[in-house]
Amino acid sequence: MSHDDANPIGEGWTRHSADMLLHPPSQVYFAQRGEQRGKYLLKSEDGWTVCPAPHVGSECPMQVRAAAASVLRSHPEGQAVDRKLDRSVVLADMPKTARLALKFPLGFLDTPACCYALFTGLRGSAAAAQWCATQFHQRLLKEVAKKIHGWWDSEAEMPEELLYRGSHVGSLGKCLQHVLETLDHDLLHGPLGFAGCNGVVAVLIGENLVAAAVGEASVALLFDDADAVPLIPLLGQEEEEDEEDATNKPMSSVSKLMQLPPNRASEQGALIGSSGLLRAKCAWEAQADLDEDPVSRILRAPDAFAVLGTSEKGPDPAETKAAYKRLALRVHPDKVKNCDPGDAKAAFSRLDAAAKIVEALYENDAGTCRELRRILRYDPLVVKGACQLLQVEMEADEAQVLKAKDTLKQTLAKVQLPEACSEVQKGIDACVAAVETLRVARQAGPSSSERLVLEGVPLQSLSAIGLRDLRGIGGHLQVRTAAYRAGEDVRVALCCGATAQLSFKDLEEPANLCRWQPKAVALQWATKALSLPRSDSSASSICICIREQEEEVAAEDPSRPAKRHKGSHGPRSVRLRHLLLRCAEPGKLLPEDPMARRRATQKSRTPAEAEAELVEVLRSLLLLDTDPNGADPDLQRSSAFRKLCQQRSECSSADNAGQLCGDLGWIARGSCEPAFEQATQPAGTAPQGVSPAPGSAVPGKAQEEDVSAAPSKQDDCREDSLGSSRSRNSQGSGDLFRPDSEEGPPEEEEEEEFSDSEDSPWEDMATWGEVGAEVHGRRALTKEAREYREEWAQKLRDAKTLGKEYLDTILSKEDFIRFKKTMRQARPSCDGRKLASEKAVLWLRGDEEDFEDLFGGLRPRKKVD
Q1: Where is each J domain found (predicted)?
Q2: Rg for the chain (alpha carbons), in Å?
Q3: DSSP code string of 664-719
Q4: CA 696, 697, 702, 703: dihedral to nearest 10 degrees?
Q5: Tens of pLDDT along 350-407?
Q6: What confidence tens digit (pLDDT) does each residue in 517-564 have?
Q7: Which of 164, 386, 444, 560 has the lowest tally of Cβ within 10 angstroms?
Q8: Architecture of domain 365-454 in this structure
């Protein structure tokens, strides 16, 4: 590249020609040299046109924390139902996900840039929800990458140069709508077409929050000092507008279905059963052998031939008349007993109309009448029924299938009777549906969701994704979008399925109590939803907490060292206390842990039970108010937490006396598992790309839940690899991550000598063993090691100046002996016992005399490569 070449804004540009660069997702070109040098161009059939420069992303002073939670309904025996129908997606950093997972940069975005989605499966199947959850973010990020000129959902806020120079700026609302529509299209034309799911999604880019919902889903804004606001109300609960808007087509179709009596087929072939809406044809075949009264059978019959009970070879005039007379005596309102008079009247009226239709069809063309009867016998939405209807083999190619359909349509077109047009149209629609069924089977194999057509769908979910069999009889996709500028403290509730039925009161109470604990709030919402009079096997929700960035976090401290992790804010370590509840999946035992307070053979709890216990603990602490004597609530919570820790914690640290009860010591960034680290730092201060230190995972499959304490110091429920834990800042004030002070670790300038070096022993300590060696061993060392850090760091610098090659020896002889003793106690919990013991030795490259001077008699061991 020449020094005279112009450089574009942002990343992701590729070489198109000697003079041009191209941004592939947006198809925007950049001229590096020539007459158009430094300009951004769009290519069209008419040539090149100049477009505005890409948007330069800025960081908004906001803190965002979000979490999804799902709760399963339990059997009376107490065992969890193995039917989790919900799937959630939480992307806290969209550019990072695009770069690492999808392998393309996603620049030009304001930060924070987050994405959230929740899908709830219908008809007792999570297949559609699973498919949408895996596809949604991939498609969304690709669509977002196409727009590099910013995102505005209001033209009033759009810069003038962008408003009048072409549609280069993207609308998040239209983007979300397009993504959901493509998901619906692909699901309908795939093997999961009969499955379906409700969905709610939200995207936050800078201060722009845009949400979209389909089916039974809603979005609510919850404030500290104001009433809740429905950003996207549940379908049917919108505020009344003018009559033209209130009587739109989707609402009218749902309104008609809501007026349809149960177990009565409509003219379009819909029927409302005990589980919701389904096709009358499917319900008819499922209950073909059911012995029921004639009134009920006639009311749910899918067509006129089924009403009369016409035989396979019929109909003929004699058979039709005989069937009519026989049934008329049994369903006439004056003859029938033990039946609702309205149902009897409706059944008799339908019987009379069916007899007239069949007689007219037979008189017009007997052959066409029999062919229509044959077509309406089969279900066109299943492969077997489609083949029988079109009279083709399953392996038939597309040309044969289309030819069979055209032949049948030409035959049915011969009938031109006003009274029979509805029955003829049912036959034509069946032929078209059969062709689509065989096309899907040919391209993707036999549908794996055919059994789902027998399951009903709630009326509020008819606008959901999928549900191919209900399209045309009431089902339709309806995407509702809304935008909000997040300029103040707010909690956003994404509710789908059962949680969408929660009232504002049910949403506000947990959100106002746990203002910065989204996991705990979402868990309480899901638990409350399962107590509603519904039969859902699971309930899920997503809570998004947004607040202005705190001044001490937003302001840069000039006294802090310049060498920092990329994207990090705030201090590097925090002093914590925690309450641990160990848990394991149902049917599995807890792994052996010598540091545990109770034996692993005790009756273990499931992760869901552990979460429920911790939420109750969190609520009990947050509900503590100032007593009449004016005591500080933080002190009350600290005392209450210590008692709870002593009573319920399953970590041996709970046996420590006084304020050290549950103490974990100083925890540094990068030394814990990601879930635990997220729970121990305030939002907005987490370094980008935080990863656990080597060896920080515990063997086994137990998990950990953790929560922290006090309104600004209490954190949230987190799953880790040890059990369930609750964390607290033992300093009693400020955020979880505190700047290092005189009471804490030394100043970071001194720590820089060893903590940031490539062969730092503080980083290598994590490789000496598992969590038992790392956490408990280091906790025993740190108290005494701090006193010797400065002294041994200076000795190390002097030794290196003399040309001696030492390993980073900064611990004293007493530290080493204590650490070795701790390692011996923790050894049973480590996989490599011998290796853990040997790695605890501080190896030294040098002769024994130098080692003797440093450690006063402790002999070195030769390092083995």
Answers
A1: 303-382
A2: 34
A3: EEEEETTSS-HHHHHHTS-TT-PPTT--PPTT-SPSSS-BEE----STTT-----E
A4: 60
A5: 999 999 999 988 888 888 999 999 999 999 988 999 999 999 998 888 999 999 999 9
A6: 899 999 999 999 998 988 888 999 999 999 887 655 445 555 544 444
A7: 164
A8: Orthogonal Bundle (1.10)
